[in-house]
Each structure stands twice: as structure tokens, then as C-alpha cells.
Amino acid sequence: MRNLIIRAITGVIFVAAIVTSFLRPEAMGLLFAIVTGLTIWEFCGLVNEHIEGTTVNRIICTVAGVWFFLSMFGFCCEIVPSAVFIAYLFTIIYLFVSELYLKHENPINNWAYTMLSQMYIALPFSMINVLAFNGSADGNIHYNMLLPLSVFIFLWVSDTGAYCCGSLLGKHKLFPRVSPGKSWEGSIGGGIFVIIAAIIIGKYDQSTAIAPATTGLLSLWQWIGLGIVVCIFGTWGDLVESLFKRTIGIKDSGNILPGHGGMLDRFDSSLMAFPAAVVYIYCLTLV
Q: CB neighbours of 61 closer than 8 A, spacing ≥ 6?
């Protein structure tokens, strides 16, 4: 009972912090720069501790990932030029070249996990900025909280719906080799809940839109499509992190969030959902 209360309190604070941060672009950028840093720090620590012969430069990987996120933030809202990414490229080059001199046991593993920390964590979180800042017909960039926040809402609704439906109806395992607790019934139930949430968000978006070119307005069917994409890729993101934990032999990625585990445990779904959402929105602009 005590653990349930702790988990509930942490969950409420977690959701409130994310929702509140999206009210201002500066708060959003600051919060997710911190989230990016903490998640990469946690990931590199797990790699160094549990994968034999692997030594990743935890500090530089973390700094590089945070710099990349902040660079994307500044570039997307047009307050910094593209040259800001040069420092990030130099950091990546250093992480490769340094292995020539450090004489570590397995430099290939070090390179692989170094780049994985950037591709798996820094890049997906940076996609939040791509969704949040949209160009308009007048050539200006406008901040839009609804698109990136909706991804989180879809993920939360999917998780809640999947848990409820899976607990009540779950009989057929979705992916027993990686995550024995997930069921097809739960996933389908979560998807149905997400479609309902997408309809509600779509109705809200249409009712508040004044100038679609400046609000990033989607049609109702496009919102439903986004919800389905986020639901599917969010589930895959969860399974990918479960496979990572199962491979290195741990249950939780950390304990920074009481009752919820570590940063990877809490953001695993979003690491696949945000890149997928960006691709989906981009494809809509081509149609």
C-alpha cells in the first residue's frame, strides 16, 4: 500500500511537471535538457557497470547529448545558427579518436554504446523541439505546445488503458520473450483509449484554432493517425528498453523516481514515439 501511494504521488508530480513545462518554451527546453542529461548519465552508468569490458565516457556523452538537445532547441526557434552543431560534431570526433590512446579492453563496444547514447536518447528527445516549433505562412516560427504534449498524453493514455484492459482481459502474450506481462488484449485496449483521446484532442484543436498556419492544426483523422502511430511505436519503445534491461540482467534502470524506477523506465516509450511522430507529421506535409 505504501509503495502504491509513493508511486501515485511520484506519477502526479511527474505529469504535472511535464504539462506545466510546456506552457513556456523556455521551461520546456530547460526541463528536457535536464531529462536528456539524466537519462544519458543513467544509460552510460548501466553500460559501464553491467557490460563487461565496456568503458563509456559518461561525462562527455552526457554533456554532448545535452548540448545537442539545446542546439536543436535554439536552432528550431531560430535563436542560434546551424553552426552551433559544430561543437557537438567535435565532441563526437573526440569520443572516437580518444579510444586510440586510452587502450581500453574493447574500444568497439565503447564506440557502439557511446553512439547509442546519442542515437537512442539525445536524438529522440531533441525531436520534441521539431514538434514544438512550427513555421507559418508569414515566415515566422511559432511555439506550439499541443503537438509534443499530445504525444505524452497518448503515451500515458496507452499505458493506462493497456494496464486496465490487460489486467481484466489479458490472455494472449504480446511479446513473452521480452516482456511477459504485456498482452494483445491490453495493447488493443490501450489503442482504443488512445483513439478516444485523439478525437478529444482533435476536437479541442479545431475549436481553439484561429489560424491553422500558425497553430499546427491537424484534421480529426490526422490526430487519430498520430495517436495510433504514437501508440504502436510507444509500445515498441517499451519493449526495446525491456530487451536492454533483460540483456544486461536488471529489473529497473534506476531509482531516481520513487516507485517508477529510473529515467529510462519512465521515458522508454517516448524514445521511439517522438521520432515516429516527427516522421508522421513530415509525411503529412508531403501529401
A: 40, 44, 95, 114, 117, 118
